[in-house]
Amino acid sequence: MKIDIVTIFPEYFTPLSLSLLGKAQGDGLLEISTHNLRERAHGVHKSVDDTPYGGGAGMVMMAEPIAQAIDPLVNADPELVMIIPTPSGARFTQERAVELSTAEHLLFLCGRYEGIDARVPEYYREVAQIRVEELSLGDYVLAGGEVASLAMIEAITRLIPGVLGNPDSLVEESHVLRDVSGDESAGETLVEYPNYTKPPQWRGLDVPEVLTSGNHGAIARWRLEQARARARKLT
Q1: Is the separation of the CB atoms in 179 and 173 below 8 Å?
Q2: Whole-model pTM?
C-alpha cells in the first residue's frame, strides 16, 4: 500500500517509522510519504490560510495551496482514495478500517484551524471524480487532522497481510464481527476479553482460575462470556 500525507506539520508522522509500521516499510509492504503544504504556498510568510467568508472566528485553509499539493498525486493515480479527517465526517470504525486496508493508495489531507475550504472535497469528488472520504474519530474536536490521520493509518495498515507478526492476533480483537456459534448469520461484534500473564498473583490479585485449568473448552466459554459482557457495557 502507498500512503501520501499532506500536512503543514510533517514532523507529526515521525512515529510511522517505528515498530510494526517501520518494519512494514522496510519489508516493502508500505510506502509512506509526507508532503509539506507550506512548500506549495506563495508569499513571504508561506500562508496557507485566510479569514472565512461571512465572518467568524478562526482561519480557513485555502484551496489553491492544497490543490497544488494534491494534483500531482491525483494525476499520477486517479484511483487513489482521499481521506479528510474532520469532526463533521462519518464515523471511522473497524469495519471502515478493514475496507480501506484493501486499497492500493491512500491520500490523507490534514486540515488545521477551522478546517479546509469546503470546495476542496467538492472539487475532487465531483470534478476530478476521485473517491473522497470525510471521516471522524469521534464526537470531539482536535487541533488538526494529524493525530486523527495517525490513528486511522495505524488502524488500517495493521490489517494488511504481513504487517502483524501473527495474523491470528486479528481474529479475536475488539470490534471484529465473529461467528461464535457456527452459524455465519449469527455473528456478533464483540470487544476483546481480558488478558493476563505471569505471575499468577500480583499485589493480591489472582488470574482467573479457569485460565490456568488447562480446560480449553471452559477457557473459550469464559472468554466469550467476558467479551459479551464488555460489549454490553459499551451499548
Answers
A1: no
A2: 0.85
Residue identified by cell 466459554 is 221
Identify any residues that bridge with 33 across adjacent strands, giving them in sequence order. 4
State how far the Cα of 126 lies from the Cα of 119, in Å rounded to an integer. 10
Give backbone dihedrals phi and psi of 26, rounded to 5 degrees, phi first.
-65, -30
84: three-class secondary structure by DSSP: strand
pLDDT beyond 90 at 176: no
Give the containing element (helix H, strand E) for 86: strand 81-91
Q: Is the pLDDT of residue 134 over 50?
A: yes
Three-state secondary-structure class, residue 135: strand
* pLDDT bracket for residue 128 (50, 70, 90): very high
pLDDT, average across residues 179-204:
77
Q: How many CB atoms lie within 10 A of CB 117?
A: 20
Tell me the torsion sign for CA atoms 151, 165, 106, 35: positive
